[in-house]
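User: Please predict the structure of the protein below. I'd like the answer in structure-token form so I can feed it into my own downstream comparison script.

Assistant: Understood. Taking the following sequence of 480 residues as input:
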Amino acid sequence: MVLMIIQLLIVLGALWVGSRYGSLALGAISGIGLAILVFGFGLKPGTPPTDVIYIIIAAVTCAGIMQASGGMDWLIQIAERLLRKHPDRITFLAPLCTFFLTVLVGTGHVVYTLMPIICDIALKKGIRPERPCGVASIASQVGITCSPIAAAVVAFVTISNANGFDITIPKVLMVSIPACLCGLMAAAAASFKRGLDLDKDPKFQAKLKDPEQRAYIYGNNATTLDKEIPQSAKNAVFIFLGALGVIVMFAIFQNLLPTYDTLRAVKGGGDLSVSPDLTITADQLIKAKLEVAGITEMFKKPLAMNLVIQIVMISAAALMIIFCKATPKKAVAGPVWQSGMVAVVAIYGIAWLADTYFSNYLSEMQVMLEDVVRQYPWSIALVFFLVSVLINSQGAVVVAMLPLAYKLGIAGPVLLGVLPSVYGYFFIPNYPSDIATVNFDRSGTTVIGKYLLNHSFMMPGLICVFTSTVVAYLITSIFF
């Protein structure tokens, strides 16, 4: 037990130090923790989440190519036109725009382009920018659990299917999208009259007395409407949306997928005890010269959805390069591709470290948590949230913690119901989108407080995640 606690502290320490440095350090410093566990304590290494990593690489490559073609600029223009048409509703419309941009692209880093526009519209309308900016930054991250190409969603489906919960991407989105929209609208409603109006805020009015401050606050007009979008950029968006449509179609109609002869070993009408689903190809069986107990049967197995996503995304990226004047060099230099590769390294290191620790102490954890999990299965949401506070990646939380949750005996529908709780890294305001939002707000109303936790993202974040999780849990309780 003492060793177990010491090793847990090493895991948490590696995550904490990595979060302090941010970016690639999350994954790299997790490697130090992994090395200590393996070489120092002799723990058996876990399994790196290669399937999820491959999907992230394919998805961010496609999204990065679309950005390089100028397609992202067109999406931002569409969002800006909506916001400027209804400036008095910006506290509700801004989070919807950042949310759906994230849903489409699979990363929340698209907020950097739209946030200065949100601030500008709020200032021009006399609305306290903290109101739309705080909830819009939260919305840009909430959309990750609602995107068909985001690592968190794909990992949830892949890991769930491997653990006997037959779920597809569309089914996940049917729960997460309405639940998260309810959470966002609750957060927006709570933010609608948040803080003092600008004309009644003494700190803001004091700034306006300084001519230089006034010029800084009101003199900069952020807009993308004056940028001409070529038809090739629009075509890239159509290709990207078409790729998403193909993925969703195959997820719904899996009978359209190609099938392959696969040999399954069974015993007494059920699967072998060594695995809940022992599935191997005939070639693998011959090459390994396996001795299969019981009987074997040949069956048709459709192409796995993780491979479908990779094939479709890579193909779409190629079409954009060929037909939409998208330059690969520009894509690699863009923020979407770079942030995606950072996520790959983070998930690689964090998930491998976590799997190594939990796989070695699974039986002990089952004994300790069995009663709690049986009586309060929803309490796993608190674990997801707390881990996310340390890990700035929802995909990494899913990959690291979901296998443990299944091994503890928590049902798949319960885990789907608490999926929104994997977003907790707004709690400590060190995530790039939150920091960037503070800097974009020229009025100074969006802040990181003196005591760190009294920041502009805490209230909308807590309301959104709590409401989203409750609604998702209710949906799964009714329909699953």
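That's the full token string. Residues 335-360 form the longest helix (26 residues).
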